[in-house]
Amino acid sequence: MTLHEPTLFVLLLLGYAMLGLQLVTASRRLFGGEALRGWGLGNSLMLAGYLFLLVDVVAPQPVWVVASNGLIVLGEFVFVAALQRFVDQAPPPRWLVMGGLACALSMAPLMMLATPTRMAIMSLIAAAPLAWGGWLVVRQWREAERSLRPVGAMLALVAATLLIRCVHAVLQPSAYVDMTQPNPVQTLVAVAAYVALLGAGFGFVLACTERASRSLERLASHDHLTGALNRQAAEPLLAQALRRARRGGGCVAFVLIDLDRFKQVNDRHGHVFGDEVLRRFAQTVRTRLRASDLLVRLGGEEFALVLPDSDAAGARRVLEQLRGDCREMGLHTEAGQACPVSFSAGIALSPQGRVDGEALYRAADGALYAAKRGGRDRAVLAGADETIPA
User: Fold this and answer.
1) Is the pTM of this model over 0.70?
2) Which residues contact 10 (CB under 8 A, 6 or more apart)?
3) Helix locations, the chain, DSSP H
4) Per the record, what are the reactions this protein catalyses (predicted)?
5) Distance CA 91, CA 247 (A)
6) pLDDT for position 386
7) Hey, which CATH number is domain 229-388, 1.10.287.3510, 3.30.70.270, 3.90.660.10, 2.60.40.10?
8) 302 contacts: CB under 8 Å, gap ≥ 6
9) Which residues pair with 305 in a beta bridge?
């Protein structure tokens, strides 16, 4: 099967031009702007590489072959660097950047080789970054956005067609002596580059859109400082836990926590350090919670815990462990002064889910104030003359 190559090149140019326009527009609005700009740079390099294929009538062949292949390979590495930045949410490794430059520069000395040998080596070089991009997506298959999966598959598809051309050039070198003769493998590579690489670009934009949507959802349901749920998001989850307890006959423990003398921390050491205390406290709490437990920031230094299938003993155990963890946090101010963290807590129980969320909050709030009146750094169980001492 062969196709009209000039038509393929025109389609490639139009496709990359349209993708470039979309990337410029999307990078200004979507989460992951740096990764999108990186993909846009790769797209521009690919576009320039295919443009060089059209100057063979006015420039010597070695010039446009080196320029075209160098830009295309460099564009592939930039694509993959942008993908790695997006997946890992960190700058791409230095070896990836340097490897792209080295591979692009290697196109010039490769011109000294026979055409079939050169095509085999070039195909192998071009396949390497795309195969790595496919692996990046496979590595994060479950955690990554669903729309990123086709991106990895398409990059792997182009890598596979390039490897096929590499093998074909080794086994059938006569097919690559005269590059003007029809070659079905060359056609396959051109079609794959058009369909898969462009599809990967549009898929990458969709993945950024998906991540932006998830980010907005998280901002709407979580406290931006500590990562804990906000009260609006936690209320329906608490109601759901109570319904499950009614059906299964379990008990839900609701705990209100207030950091002791937190206003003094802000007044003495500043709000920036106070924010760090809140972040570290929330991180410490999360290490003690099960997957079914909820951490909620109600405001200021006040938090809540929702502990499904937990009674007074279970809630007490969590708070005792958390109190020990807080002593070991080792927070120090910029001046090197130690800043111990303690908290007061009120515990309320809903056996078999019979106590609703509002009543739980009132009961836990009353127990919390009893803990504060009792000297702080302790917990009180609502409805019982039971104090968990410091």
Assistant:
1) no
2) none
3) 5-27, 33-52, 61-88, 94-105, 107-110, 115-139, 149-171, 184-192, 198-221, 231-248, 262-269, 271-288, 312-327, 357-373
4) 2 GTP = 3',3'-c-di-GMP + 2 diphosphate
5) 49
6) 45
7) 3.30.70.270
8) 256, 257, 258, 259
9) 255, 295
